[in-house]
C-alpha cells in the first residue's frame, strides 16, 4: 500500500487528487490512529511505514487532516508536555515526529505541511525552542 501511495504522490496534483478520492473517509484515518495507540507492540519499521501511509492518506484533504492532527494536539503543547506527561504521551509525540518526517517532499506533501503550519504548530515549537534556549543561556551566565 505504501509503495502505491508513494508512487501516486509523484503524479500530477490533479491525478493524485483524483486517485485520493478512493482512499475512503475520515473513519479510516481514525481507525489507523487507534491502531497506532497499540504501537508498543509494533516495530519501529512498521510504525515508520504506517505513519507514511497515514500522511499520504490525508494529502490535499483538510477533512482527513483535521482528525490526524487533532489526535496529536494534546502533546504538541511542549510546555505542558514538559510539566507533565505519561509514557503514552511520549509515544504519541514520537509518532508525530515520525509522521512529520514521513511527509513527501513535493507539492502534494506540502499540503499537509502547510496545514501543520496554518495551525501554528511550527510557530509554537519554535517559540518553545527559543524560550528554552534563552533560559539555558541565562542560567549559564
Give a description of the structure:
The structure is a single chain. The chain is 77% helix and 0% strand. By secondary structure, the chain is an all-alpha fold. The chain has one domain (2-140). The chain is globular and about 55 Å long. The mean pLDDT is 92.
Summarize the structure.
With 141 residues, the protein is mostly helical. The protein has helices spanning 2-9, 13-20, 26-37, 44-58, 62-72, 78-83, 87-102, 107-118, 121-140.
Comma- or semicolon-separated keywords:
141 residues; mainly alpha
Beta-strand segment tally: 0
Q: What composes the largest sheet?
A: none
Note poorly predicted spans: none
Radius of gyration, in angstroms, nearest whole number? 17 Å
Structural class: mainly alpha
Considering DSSP H and I runs of 4 or more, what fraction of the residues is helical?
Answer: over 70%
N-end to C-end Cα span:
53 Å
How many independent structural domains? Answer: 1
- Proportion of beta-strand residues: under 5%
Question: What topology emerges from the helices and strands here?
Answer:
Blueprint (H helix, E strand, L loop, with lengths): L1 H8 L3 H8 L5 H12 L6 H15 L3 H11 L5 H6 L3 H16 L4 H12 L2 H20 L1
